[in-house]
Amino acid sequence: MTSQVSSPAEQADATVVGEQRKPGGAKDVRRLDRVIIRFAGDSGDGMQLTGDRFTSETASFGNDLSTLPNFPAEIRAPAGTLPGVSSFQLHFADHDILTPGDAPNVLVAMNPAALKANIGDLPRGAEIIVNTDEFTKRALQKVGYAASPLEDGSLDGYHLHPVPLTTLTVEALKEFDLSRKEAERSKNMFALGLLSWMYHRPTEGTEKFLNSKFAKKPEIAAANIAAFRAGWNFGETTEDFAVSYEVAPATKAFPVGTYRNISGNLALAYGLVAASQQADLPLFLGSYPITPASDILHELSRHKNFGVRTFQAEDEIAGIGAALGAAFGGSLAVTTTSGPGVALKSETIGLAVSLELPLLVVDIQRGGPSTGLPTKTEQADLLQAMYGRNGEAPVPVVAPKTPADCFDAALEAARIALIYRTPVILLSDGYLANGSEPWRIPDLDELPDLRVRFATGPNHTLDDGTEVFWPYKRDPRTLARPWAVPGTPGLEHRIGGIEKQDGTGNISYDPANHDFMVRTRQAKIDGIDVPDVEVDDPDGARTLVLGWGSTYGPITAAVRRLRAAGEAVAQAHLRHLNPFPRNLGEVLERYGKVVIPEMNLGQLATLIRAKYLVDARSYNQVNGMPFKAEQLATALKEAIDD
Q1: Does the CA dihedral 410-413-417-418 come out positive or negative?
Q2: Closest CA to 439 of 400, 477, 468
Q3: What distance in Å separates the CA atoms of residue 6 and residue 90, rounded to the nearest whole number?
Q4: Which has more pLDDT, 10 or 384?
């Protein structure tokens, strides 16, 4: 099946595209166009590591892929309970895909809780691999099973593979000087080996990874590798798995280039480093750890060789305060956080608006309000980003659409901040931050030139002929004020949050001046040069689906399904949320119906309705999970038919 045929049908079960019967009693190999696998177990069972390793090998094999890690907020959630289940879903294919998939074809359940928490997502006929060693009477009772689902017939509609993973792992590691508890910890590697055999995944990278991860504990490294190999060999020799599967590389899905698997937070960190290099400025991160943004702090701390300085502050306010100070000092300054941290940083963001200094505020959105759902995703900080400050304090807002796009969004946010001398809010979310996909590594000549010119001397002549420096004398094109590095002779000027006099920067309480400065700061943001929004409308549709941020994948998958079914539907996606693209109003006027799916209660729809007087329809979800493509396709079909 070619990529052009299979892509629109992303909701269908994996399609068999070929079968090979091997002579001499060898196992059959069945070729599929795509597979969705979900690993699930206790938060201490290593499901995220297992999924990440399977993903890395899948990326090196050349498949297109999309992932969905899902884990509890607790460091170690209660073992064997439904709230303690951690899962990792991977969708990989021989063609272009956009989402982690709606329903797994394969579930690996390490205990009864993992089975019960995930069984509702599985279609009939899916394969279930269960660790039978964990299906004890006590474990079953803990999650409300009156009888074992492995024996009561409730799983008859699935292809069930009962495997004593713990026992097999301990047996495989009996030659190692490990306690039973230590040996049991490697059962996730046994499961990874089994799945690697089932889907013909490479193994060299995982073994190299384990040797590196446990370099200081070679015995542990050897044990994990042994468990991994034992899982592979079990698949090869057991009669329970009569068929293995192949998913060919997605050779037609990608433009020519060098690719790597990348998560959204890693791509964003790389984008910030690239921006500092392209701007020829040191990068400073002032941050306080918060889920799901902490990985950016961790990653940037590794790149001192690129002139990156990271400061883990005592709280959110100190983090942004240090970053704003670094901006005043001439650095590309960044602070990273999530929604609760943005609330704490709001006063300093307002100060940055008043000082008109470049500052990147990275908000990795999560479920709220308050502490909310730290490890679950949401898009509910848009109105906070737009208006969550005292006074008229306009700030540009940029949102990436995929994990890989976080790299480009970081560069774009830096471009706006540096050219227009303004704080910029970059709105990612937990789905993008933790999810991953292939990313084409760009050539250096593809990156934008972000170099800036600092003020070096006087820029204004008084009536008496004296040359002076005016810190608020603006570029007539961008309305940006000069960036004067402190310590430069002759550029001494006042700084602070009290209103400035136009031009001189002196403290001013004059009503007319305040009105002028407020309107000028707004005009500067309104005048930011952003690309027009592009519309995908091959059939002259009457209905437009408008999205922003991480809804891009599910929306596009849903639109493909509808078009494959003969429906005419147009799609547009916003990266720039403040200011909106200049052609957006004209685009909206072309359609009789505008539908806006969001993982909030209609925040973009509120902005669109207010600004353009368009009767935009909201389709909303706030359950901590991304949209499913089938769910969106159904809702959009209803909107089209209404």
Answers
A1: positive
A2: 400
A3: 18
A4: 384
Find out whether 111 and 46 touch, Cβ atoms under 8 Å. no
4 falls in which pLDDT band (50, 70, 90)?
very low
d(CA 267, CA 412): 13
In this prediction, what percent of the chain has a pLDDT beyond 70?
Answer: 96
String of b and e for 551-570 (b: at least 16 CB within 10 Å)?
bbbbbbbbbbbbbeeebebb
Phi, psi of 65 (to 5 degrees): -155, 160
DSSP 121: G
* Both tokens assigned to 572: 């547009």
In sequence order, the 6+-apart residues with CB closer than 8 A to the CB of 138 are none
Q: What is the pLDDT of residue 20?
A: 61
128 Cβ neighbours under 8 A, 6+ residues apart: 106, 107, 109, 115, 119, 122, 155, 158, 159, 160, 161
Decide: helix, strand or coil at residue 308: strand
**What is the layout of strands, in order, in the sheet containing 359-365?**
308-312, 283-287, 332-337, 359-365, 423-429, 397-398, 576-578
Asked if residue 181 has pLDDT above 50, the reply is: yes
Q: In angstroms, rounded to a whole number, what is the distance separating the alpha carbons of residues 62 and 249?
A: 5
Q: Which residues of 213-231 are buried (b: 16+ CB within 10 A; e: fewer)?
A: ebeeeeebbbbbbbbbbbb
Residue range 334-380, pLDDT digits in tens: 999 999 999 999 999 999 999 999 999 999 999 999 999 999 999 99
- What pLDDT does 75 receive? 80
pTM score above 0.70: yes
Mean pLDDT, rounded, for 87-110: 97
CB 194 within 8 A of CB 235: yes
The pairing of strands 535-536 and 570-574 is antiparallel
What lies within 8 Å, CB to CB, of 623 at 6+ separation is: none
The two three-digit tokens of residue 372, written as one number: 């909310």
Confirm if 603 and 383 have CB atoms less than 8 A apart: yes
Q: State the pLDDT confidence band at 7, using cuts at 50, 70 and 90.
A: very low
pLDDT band per the 50, 70, 90 thresholds, residue 15: low
Burial (CB count within 10 angstroms: exposed 0-12, middle 13-18, buried 19+), residue 630? middle
Specify the residue for token string 């009290």.
498
pLDDT at 25: 54
pLDDT of residue 494: 86
Whether the Cβ atoms of residue 181 and residue 169 lie closer than 8 Å to each other = no
pLDDT in tens, 499-551: 999 999 999 999 999 999 999 999 999 999 999 999 999 999 999 999 999 99
Q: What is the mean pLDDT of residues 205-212?
A: 96
Rounded to 5°, angle at Cα 291 from 287 and 297: 35
Q: Which residues pair with 617 in a beta bridge?
A: 595
Note whether 615 and 609 are within 8 A (CB). Answer: yes
Beta carbons within 8 Å of 585's beta carbon, 6+ residues apart: 611, 612
Rounded to whole angstroms, how far apart are CA atoms 8 and 239?
36
Question: Which stretches within 199-252 are classed as H helix?
Answer: 204-213, 218-237
- Residue 425: phi and psi, rounded to 5, are -100, 125
Rounded CA-CA distance 395/539 in Å is 37
Residue 8 clears pLDDT 60, i.e. is over it? no
